[in-house]
TrEMBL record:
<keyword id="KW-0560">Oxidoreductase</keyword>
<protein>
    <recommendedName>
        <fullName>Aldehyde dehydrogenase domain-containing protein</fullName>
    </recommendedName>
</protein>
<dbReference type="InterPro" id="IPR016161">
    <property type="entry name" value="Ald_DH/histidinol_DH"/>
</dbReference>
<dbReference type="InterPro" id="IPR016162">
    <property type="entry name" value="Ald_DH_N"/>
</dbReference>
<dbReference type="InterPro" id="IPR016160">
    <property type="entry name" value="Ald_DH_CS_CYS"/>
</dbReference>
<feature type="active site">
    <location>
        <position position="269"/>
    </location>
</feature>
<dbReference type="InterPro" id="IPR016163">
    <property type="entry name" value="Ald_DH_C"/>
</dbReference>
<feature type="domain" description="Aldehyde dehydrogenase">
    <location>
        <begin position="33"/>
        <end position="492"/>
    </location>
</feature>
<dbReference type="GO" id="GO:0004030">
    <property type="term" value="F:aldehyde dehydrogenase [NAD(P)+] activity"/>
</dbReference>
<dbReference type="Pfam" id="PF00171">
    <property type="entry name" value="Aldedh"/>
</dbReference>
<dbReference type="InterPro" id="IPR029510">
    <property type="entry name" value="Ald_DH_CS_GLU"/>
</dbReference>
<comment type="similarity">
    <text>Belongs to the aldehyde dehydrogenase family.</text>
</comment>
<dbReference type="InterPro" id="IPR015590">
    <property type="entry name" value="Aldehyde_DH_dom"/>
</dbReference>
Length: 504
């Protein structure tokens, strides 16, 4: 079977050659022991784009061995920060060169609009690589005074080693960059498992890794099913750290497997059911824009989606009317249609899950004020859906839906708003809108979330850390904080004057 899939982009007629094999030691290869394939689906048409090889547990073993060899010989402590920086910048250059074609394949596989994939996801990913390229030669330790006459100590921040990285389907290129860039900047090697739903751009980026000049084995990519490849990485005795973005349920399994194997280092960016508070002093027009962005961006397939919106009772009716009017303006359509601000959800399983929650909202008595009706025809399209008159026990209020479904409640006082916001097992993101500066400081301090947005929502920067509290995970991505996830601190005690006496 050919190692290359030839894909025609319907909107442009562009022919794109995408690798189908496993990327190990800078080569695309078949599985060592499996003939299983992963069918890759276009969510806008429900048609198969192509099939790629599905990695097995033995393939993970081979990839880990390649990563270990590279770490011990051509990467890790064997290459300077200047060289790591040069290669990361070269990779960013190549992504910039191929930005349009990467965006088209991303849209075909994931469903999101080409313009958003190109300008937001890939544009941000290029910046992420350049940001960590800047850090590669600036990873420093401390000199510590112990006794100036006889001894001193210093610390070194050394690369963790071989890193298993498991990324989700909602931002395939963005999550690839978030994981790969800090790991490579620190000198780690990688075995990447992209989502089996969206593996294509990870394989295309692997081609760019070779073109950029990275040594064989530094980055390895093994598309596989989560229960196979992800589980193998989490429990592998040769993996020093695992980084995962995905559901809380899977995060628990990964953490348990890491503990049962070699107690590998773990960072987990998990689910969310993020609160978004609108106070009466807010600019209502802007707050409505941000609230729409918070739940409808990426068709709601966002771990920080502001899916629980609470509005102060004095402005509730006015704000809800404005919100519904604005949300209805979003065009959900084919990602290659320039009018589309959102695409289909990624898969049939996700589509069915979202609709089960919409139906539960209706059954449990929430008031449907927008959407909630299935479209005829092909494609996993879900239009913006808003419920009001919610109660705390409803599934749409409790559970992460991961779709364009918003629950709107009300509050009277600031204290009640904070209580409602924090009444969740999650703690990834939260937002508030107010023109009272003192209130902004009080509430942002009281909200239990790793990221709090004030008078905006869902905006991230590569130099600002991101991660969760409670059941939304552990560890941080982005910013200088992410370097801590890919380094170990070694303390060196140096005696230059103290004499030891023996026996005691």
């Amino acid at each position: 079977m050919s190692q290359i899939a030839r894909i025609v982009i319907p909107a442009s007629g562009r022919l794109v050659e995408v690798p189908r094999g496993l990327f190990i030691h800078n080569e695309f290869v078949p599985s060592v022991d499996s003939k299983e394939l992963i069918d890759v689906i276009n969510p806008a048409t429900e048609e198969i784009i192509c099939s790629v090889f599905a990695g097995s547990q033995k393939d993970i073993d081979v990839a880990v061995a390649a990563a270990r060899k590279a770490f011990n010989t051509t990467w890790g402590k064997n290459v300077t920060g200047f060289e790591r920086s040069r290669l990361l910048n070269k990779l960013a250059d190549l992504m910039e060169r191929d930005q349009q074609v990467l965006a088209e394949v991303e849209s075909l596989n994931n469903g999101k609009p080409v313009t958003i994939a190109r300008d937001s996801d890939i544009g941000d990913s290029i910046q992420c690589l350049r940001y960590y390229a800047g850090w590669a030669d600036k990873i420093v330790g401390q000199t510590i005074e112990v006794d100036n006459k006889t001894k001193m100590a210093f610390t070194k921040h050394e690369p963790v080693g071989v890193c298993g990285q498991i990324i989700p389907w909602n931002y395939p290129i963005n999550m690839w960059a978030w994981k790969v860039a800090p790991a490579l900047a620190c000198g780690c090697t990688i075995v990447m498992k992209p989502s089996e739903i969206t593996p294509l751009t990870a394989l295309m980026l692997s081609q760019l890794v070779v073109e950029a000049g990275f040594p064989p084995g530094v980055v390895n990519t093994v598309p596989s099913f989560g229960a196979v490849g992800g589980a193998a990485l989490a429990s592998h005795m040769g993996v020093d750290k695992v980084a995962f973005t995905g559901s809380t349920l899977t995060g628990r399994k990964i953490m348990e497997a890491a503990a049962r194997s070699n107690l590998k280092k773990v960072s987990l960016e998990l689910g969310g059911k993020s609160p978004h508070l609108i106070f009466e002093s807010a600019n209502l027009d802007q707050a409505a824009n941000w609230a729409c962005l918070g739940i409808l961006y990426n068709t709601g397939q966002d771990c920080t989606a502001g899916s629980r919106l609470y509005v102060q009772d004095t402005i509730y009716d006015k704000f809800v009317a404005l919100l519904v009017e604005k949300a209805a303006q979003l065009v959900i359509g084919d990602g290659f249609d320039e009018k589309s601000g959102g695409g289909p959800v990624v898969s049939k399983a996700q589509y069915d899950k979202i609709w089960s929650y919409i139906e539960s909202g209706k059954v449990q008595g929430a008031k449907l004020v927008l959407g909630g009706q299935k479209r005829p025809g092909k494609g996993y399209f879900v239009d913006p859906t808003i419920f009001t008159e919610i109660t705390h026990d409803m599934k749409i209020v409790q559970d992460e839906i991961f779709g364009p479904v918003l629950s709107v409640g009300r509050f009277k006082t600031e204290e009640e708003a904070i209580t409602l916001a924090n009444d969740t097992s999650y703690g990834l993101g939260a937002g508030l809108h107010s023109n009272d500066a003192n209130q902004c400081m009080r509430v942002s301090s009281a909200l239990e979330a790793g990221t709090v947005w004030v008078n905006q929502y869902n905006m991230l920067s590569n130099n600002v850390p991101f991660g969760g509290k409670k059941q939304s995970g552990i560890g941080r991505e982005l910013g200088s904080y992410a370097l801590n996830e890919y380094t170990d601190v070694k303390a060196v005690h140096w005696n230059f004057g103290e004499q030891s006496e023996w026996p005691l």
